[in-house]
Amino acid sequence: MSYIEFHDVVKRFGDNTVLDHISFGIEKGDLVTLLGPSGCGKSTLLRCLSGLEQVSEGSILLDGADITDVPASKRNIGMVFQQYSLFPNMNVEQNIAFGLKMQKVPQDVIDRKVREAIDMVELTGKEKAYPANLSGGQQQRAALARSIVTEPAVLLLDEPLSAIDAKLRRSLQARIREIQQELNLTTIFVTHDQDEAMVMSDVIQLFHAGRIEQAGTPVEVYTKPVSEFAASFIGSYNQLARDEFQAMTGASVPAGHVVAVRPETIAITADSPADVAGCHVVRGTVAGSTPRGNVLRYTVRVGAVTLRVDALFRSFHMFEPGQDVYLAIPEHDCLFIPAGALRDAA
């Protein structure tokens, strides 16, 4: 039995079904990310687990106990929201201590736990500061400390870093993960950012239209998408129709399938590569390029097909628009995926 279990959970708002028969388990001590686009149901599931929303059907178990109808205040679940929700009239120490005071914990224990929490989130020196005098990252760390200081059975993080700049966001991702592992704290993290999910997670649950599209480790979900939606949402796969791929490469594709290829698996060269064993080699023309950090993403036209190709960004060796190039596509990186209704959602 898993530490948290969702059994056939349905949530409706009027005629709108937001969660459509969700069932999966979460192991104790894992950080599980609910990943998906806006409106897919991931935050709603978090709110159902916390008790802020009641399920329409199904049940939720925590450590073997059915908590489906247990009030939110009795579930021992900590939650950090995107908006932080710190009390503006309380300083950092007072905000962090609030939950412990509500639990009527002795003052000496409160003082010790608050000090430990402040050290853990690296806010030493900001104990007497009020939220209005804190940066966004400091407010987020204070909110995290307030949630973990009560030693919850589960920590829920609902897109807590979406309003923070990229550099600080990466730092906080690493710190949250460190704290979660130090405390062996079962954590559910909600995001629509695939890169964040890859960095943070033990397990990713990929949501789409109120259902779980795919579940697995970050590597499994990234390298083995099970549907066109999964391939489009994680990894920015090139997706080619059966006839497109067959015309481009001459290879056969099973009926009823599309072909998905990750941009970083395709090699791009000015001259025809000498060693092409196990690769489809095609000739194309560079249509353009876009810098993406340390990666340069080329768009290359191969007949009627346009492919995205990622290469390390080397300013001394770049291909120009209009330049003819060769692409080597490893056969083992060409994934056959059952054809569906969605393509090129990336």
Structural class: alpha+beta
Shape: globular
Distance between the termini: 36 Å
Number of helical runs? Answer: 9
Q: pLDDT under 50 segments (min length 5)?
A: 341-346
What strand line-up does the widest sheet have? 6-7-8-3-9-10
What is the total tally of β strands?
18
List keywords for this structure.
globular, 346 residues, 5-stranded antiparallel beta sheet, 6-stranded mixed beta sheet, disordered C terminus, 9 helices, alpha+beta, single chain
Write the layout of secondary structure elements.
Layout: E1 4-13, E2 16-26, E3 31-35, H1 42-50, E4 57-62, E5 65-66, E6 77-80, H2 92-102, H3 107-120, H4 136-148, E7 154-158, H5 166-183, E8 187-191, H6 194-200, E9 203-208, E10 211-216, H7 218-223, H8 228-233, E11 238-240, H9 242-249, E12 257-261, E13 267-269, E14 279-292, E15 295-302, E16 305-312, E17 324-330, E18 335-338
Parallel strand pairs: 3-8, 3-9, 6-7, 7-8
Antiparallel strand pairs: 1-2, 1-4, 4-5, 9-10, 11-12, 12-18, 13-17, 14-15, 14-17, 15-16
Helix pairs in contact: 2-3, 2-4, 3-4
Task: Kindly describe this structure.
This protein has 346 residues and is of the alpha+beta class. 27% of the residues lie in helices and 32% in strands. The strands form 4 sheets. The protein has a 6-stranded mixed beta sheet, with helices on both faces. Helix 2 packs across helix 3 and helix 2 (92-102) packs parallel to helix 4 (136-148). It is globular and about 75 Å long.
Short description:
The strands form 4 sheets. Strands 6-7-8-3-9-10 form a 6-stranded mixed beta sheet, sandwiched between helices.
